[in-house]
Amino acid sequence: MSDLIYEGKAKKVFKGLEPHQYVLYFKDDATAFNAQKKDVIESKGILNQKIASQVFQYLENHEVQTHFIKSLSDREMLVEAVHIIPVEVIVRNITAGSLCKRLGIEENIKLDKPLIEFCLKSDALGDPIMMEEHIYIMNLATHEEIQHIRHEALKINTLLQKLFDDLGITLADFKLEFGKTQAGKIVLADEITPDGCRLWDQATGKILDKDRFRKDLGGLAEAYQEVLTRMTEKALA
Ligand code: UDP
Fold first, then answer.
1. How far does residue 124's CA lie from ligand 1's centre (Å)?
2. What is the bridge-based pairing of β-strands 76-80 and 68-71?
3. Do domains 4-80 and 83-218 have the same CATH topology?
4. Which residues line ligand 1 (CB under 6 A)?
């Protein structure tokens, strides 16, 4: 494969054959709590590549602009090269995780409307939550870009809630990253996989996401496989 540009916790990024294209390579590494907890979970990368490709294709079919071009192999995805805006966009439909810990809110409360939070993408600082104003003083994105990102995040949330609901899965929350193309367009980037979502089986309440790893519940690959199988059987349109 061509030149390695960057290695992250769960993916490697390579130069593509064409200019302005990258190849994302999905690894089996699992990390949590800012990489203080680490493991290798066989086939996680394959499952995530397949899930992310289906989700991106579904979003593209519904007029969401993403970096996705096509799936190349079990672990490789071809994407448009973007400059990642170093802001993690968290969308929440049901209370869980850091929201509850930080504010002392009870878990599993349905929110009246989706909540959007921003975190600085910085391993060194542990991805601290930030106010929109902090994005501007750090010149990470313009006001116009953030309004566009908010709009896209809500649209993506509506589409993903429907997608997962049709699979009998509740989408409690998830993380998005956006990037800027060579032409200056803001598109959805990174990945959408159970590594960055909270997914709960509606019939049993079973956790089908990375919380299985965070909470030492085991059966992570089996849970991701369950999500992929339901997606494939449903043939997302
Ligand atoms: N999330 C993520 N990467 C991060 C932080 C959060 O993918 O660096 C996802 C996480 O999987 C969950 C959602 O964003 O689906 C909200 O996470 P939260 O802020 O509750 O953090 P956590 O409790 O997971 O530390």
1. 16
2. antiparallel
3. no
4. 88, 90, 96-99, 127, 173-175, 196-198, 210
Q: What is the pLDDT of residues 28-59, one digit of tens each?
A: 999 999 889 999 999 999 999 999 999 999 99
How far apart, in whole angstroms, are the C-alpha atoms of residue 225 and residue 41?
A: 12
Nearest CA to ligand 1 atom 25: 98
Q: Whose C-alpha lies nearest to ligand 1, atom 5? A: 175
Token pair listed for 118: 């921003």
**What would the pLDDT profile of 84-128 be if each residue is shown by its tens digit?**
999 999 999 999 999 999 999 999 999 999 999 999 999 999 999
Q: Alpha-carbon distance 136 to 150, whole Å?
A: 15
- Is the domain spanning 4-80 CATH 3.30.200.20? The answer is yes
Contact 66, 59 (CB under 8 A): yes
Ligand 1 geometric centre to CA of 111 (Å): 17
The CATH code for residues 83-218 is 3.30.470.20
* pTM exceeds 0.70 for this model: yes
Domain ranges of the chain: 4-80, 83-218
